[in-house]
Every structure is written in structure tokens, then in C-alpha cells.
Design goal:
It contains one helix and five strands, in the order ββββαβ. With 64 residues, it is mainly β. The longest helix is centred in the last third of the chain and has 7 residues.
Length: 64
């Protein structure tokens, strides 16, 4: 699964604040995510996140 920084992940399970949407800050073996609801930043292993993704909303970047 190809996930890039600034993509928005819609998760299957809610964050404790009630939001389902997470912004990708960094990707690799671990993902650094920011909750859109409360702004909490956290790191999660790729294997755990990939199982819980419902959909990916790509960031619109202009190509040169």
C-alpha cells in the first residue's frame, strides 16, 4: 500500500476523541500520524495501521 505524507487516512476504529481521520506526517516502517479531531501526534507500526485503514484520501499536489 502506497501512503505518502499529507494523505488523510480514514480509519475503521475511532480515536478516543471520536475522530476517524488521521493525517500522515511521516511514512516508513512506522507511521507518524496526527488526529484531525484533537491534534494528538503518535507513532504506530505500519503493520498495525494497514489493517485498520478504511480508505485513503490523497493530497492534491501539483506536478511540475
Amino acid at each position: 500500500m502506497d501512503i505518502c505524507p499529507n494523505d488523510v487516512l480514514v480509519m475503521k476504529k475511532k480515536h478516543p476523541c471520536g475522530s476517524l481521520r488521521m493525517i500522515v506526517l511521516r511514512s516508513g516502517m512506522d507511521f507518524k500520524l496526527r488526529c484531525e479531531g484533537c491534534g494528538h501526534e503518535f507513532m504506530v507500526p505500519r503493520s498495525k495501521i494497514e489493517k485498520n485503514i478504511k480508505s485513503v484520501e490523497r493530497s492534491e499536489e501539483k506536478e511540475l
